[in-house]
Amino acid sequence: MRRAVEGDRARLLDYLRLEPEVNLFIAGDIVNFGFNSPAVDYYIQESDGAISAVLTRYRTNLIPYTRDLSGDLGPMTAAVNACLRPVGGWMVSGKKQILDRIQPRLSLPPRNALDMFLCACREVQPRVPLDRLPMVVRASASDAAEIYALIQSIREFAGGSMGVETLAEEIASGKTRVAIIRDAESGRLVSCASVVAETDTAAMVILVGTDERHRRKGYASACVYYLVHDLERRGKSACLFFHNPEAGAIYHRLGFVNIGMWKMLKFGGR
């Protein structure tokens, strides 16, 4: 595999558009970071002059992708192994069929493996109460420390690679949009949801979470609806992942439908 450059942009995006929802993270990184950011690298494998596989590194997150599961995945697997480190909270994620193929050949054993549903919402159709919607506001960079603290307090999100300073920078730049709810009495930030990897057609909803003491109040539903409605208003669809059936039921009642399976492998860290 070789490192992609600006001159590869058009044909790389054409390759990724063959499965747009699956490749939203990669396409979003290209749109938002380009080819000269230290935060992101793209590697492409070619066959007869055509792209046959892609590996993206966003900070300590790796996403391998290919449309041809019957092809040689050796170069892509070797590239993943070259990036992986035993410390630093590395993560490899992507289409489940791809990760199931390469996982046995990875140089490090994952500390955690999680299969998730990939969902898309092309038209928000809420069948869930949204009485908390007036409490939702869009976060600013000054909220980053509280957002980070809330995310770290939720077991399934703790140990992520993005720190407070990076989160603040990405909120300020618009690369990350965060909807938040604060408790009416204490003023504490108690629920949030984020949108990342935004392209001209779609974006990914991630890090949907609520403080344990404030769950089952409709906060997360309101935050997700706020973000998805904003995307829809701008002519874009939303995607997200889930593995918790209870969360899945909420997303389905907002209009999300399952379109595939995603796998996440976590290495090192907590």
The tally of strands reads: 12
Which stretches are low in confidence, meaning pLDDT under 50 for 5 or more residues running? none
- The outline comes out as globular
**What profile does the largest beta sheet have?**
12 strands, mixed
CATH superfamily of the largest domain: Gcn5-related N-acetyltransferase (GNAT)
How are strands sequenced across the largest beta sheet?
Answer: 1-2-3-4-5-12-6-11-10-9-8-7
End-to-end separation in angstroms reads 31 Å
Report the top-level CATH class of the largest domain: Alpha Beta
What is the residue-mean pLDDT, rounded to a whole number? 94
- CATH structural architecture of the largest domain: 3-Layer(aba) Sandwich
SS element count, helices = 8
N-to-C SSE series?
Answer: EHHEEEHEHEEHHEEEHEHE
> How many domains make up the 3D coordinates?
2
